[in-house]
Amino acid sequence: MPNNFINSSLKFLAYLSILMLFAGFLYNKPINNIGLTLAGFHALIYVKESWAKLKGPVLYVLLALILLPSVHDIIFNGLSFFHVQNTLKWSLIVYPLFFVSCMRYPDFFKHTIVIFSLFIFFGSVISLVEYFNNYEDINQEYGMAKVMKVPAFSDHIRYSWAIVVSMIFALYAYMNFNIGKFRFLWIIYIIFNFLFLFVLSSKTGLITLYLTTLVLIGGYIFTMDRRKAFLITGSIIMIPVIAYFVFPSFQNRIEFIKYDYYHFVRKEYKQGQSDALRMYSLEGGVELIGRHPVKGFGFSEIQKEMNQWYSINKPFLKKSDYFLPSSEIVLYWASCGIFGLIVILSFVFVPLWEYRKNVFFLAYFIPVVFSFLYETHLETQTGIFVFGFTFGLVFTLAWAEKNGVKWSQNKGSIVNLPNK
User: DSSP label at 144?
Assistant: First the structure.
């Protein structure tokens, strides 16, 4: 009886963690922190067993990615390693250990994907309701580098990324979970989100969507039916053209990108040029790399160095536009020197090699590491949650498949769990 009570309590704790993580991601950061704490507690209970299963190249490079900023700053900048940009990353190790510890619960992964999808769906529906209630005003704002209000504290970059990942999981569920007559709902969910991403018109979301689609097409459809593949590929290519004439938000977004590019190439900065600010930040980051390519400046000092660079080289910008280099790869190199570059490139290539035969892992991971060229997902709480949660879940499922975990017909339940 006590063991059954403990097991039921831990199972409840695992589900509560998932619910609080997503509720917090969308609407309340302290709730997200509580969910992370509960997930960490669950992972800690089984940490020895979980570590023994997952230990290997992927877990080691993830650990290096997490710890290098702190270790580097301890060595070169002393106690400043407690800088928030460093400590936020520590939570990334929780997610894979948490998910592998939850493989003991029947249907846990199926339920997790359903919860993920429901939170994203209702968040998007609420966004659309507000959009249509203020249709004209919001469409005009799309011509000024703004987008509709979304959950996740209006972080449309991370929210659109989460949408695409939820679509990957929905496809995974459609192909693997036996849920009878409701199976078609996964396809409706995918179509809904595909259209929503064009209404939202987040560049990161659409780039991620198309890279994911290309990987899936290359991995599955071309090996099965080439005529179907060409038909689907042609349709997907035509969707942006149709969307330009159907969705005013997408049309205005495209026109603003053209406006932004027009003035950027002529070096005529106009207030609100988001892509110009991104390019300026990369220019500054590359210059900082050139000054200290081996040692780097440290994560705790990089913003100060960037501020000085902006004040000298881009005096026309407001201080509120003094951003970090808009590339995780450039940021790690500028902050941690050559070791930062080695670590982040290792994190790019080691998982790709380790799970190169797993199409779903590649469909998730290739767009993620590609986005490291132009995004800094690991420098904000919302970005760290989306990356940590989704990578932890995908990594666990890929590890399970590679290591011979046998599932029941419904892949939410496990028949055997190897000791390896």
Answer: G
Residue 407, SS3 per DSSP: strand
**Distance of alpha carbon 205 from alpha carbon 160, whole angstroms:** 5
3-class DSSP assignment, residue 316: coil
Instruction: Give bridge partners of residue 414 from the DSSP assignment.
Output: 407
3 state SS of 345: helix
Alpha helices in 46-93 (DSSP H): 47-54, 57-77, 84-87
Residue 414 has φ and ψ, to the nearest 5°, of -110, 135
* pTM of the predicted model over 0.90: yes
* Separation between Cα atoms, residue 260 and residue 130, nearest integer Å: 27
Question: Left if phi > 0, otherwise alpha if psi is -120 to 50, otherwise beta: which for 244?
Answer: alpha
Q: What is the pLDDT of residues 208-235, one digit of tens each?
A: 999 999 898 887 766 666 677 777 777 8
Contact (Cβ atoms closer than 8 angstroms) between residue 87 and residue 354: no
The answer to whether the CB of 116 falls within 8 A of the CB of 170 is no
Query: What is residue 414's three-state secondary structure?
Result: strand
Tokens of 228: 């179907």
Strand extents, DSSP E, 139-273: none
In the chain, the amino acid numbered 160 is: S
Please report where in the chains the tokens 């005003």 appear, as a residue: 137
The answer to which of 7-16, 93-102, 230-239 has the lowest mean pLDDT is 230-239
Instruction: Give the 3-state DSSP-derived string for 346-389, with helices as H, strands as E and coil as C.
Output: HHHHHHHHHCCCCHHHHHHHHHHHHHCCCCCHHHCHHHHHHHHH
Give tens-digit pLDDT for 349-397: 999 999 999 999 999 999 999 999 999 999 999 999 999 999 999 999 9
Residue 236: the pLDDT is: 80
Q: Are 378 and 341 in contact, with CB atoms under 8 Å apart?
A: no
Query: The tokens of 253 are what?
Result: 């977004």
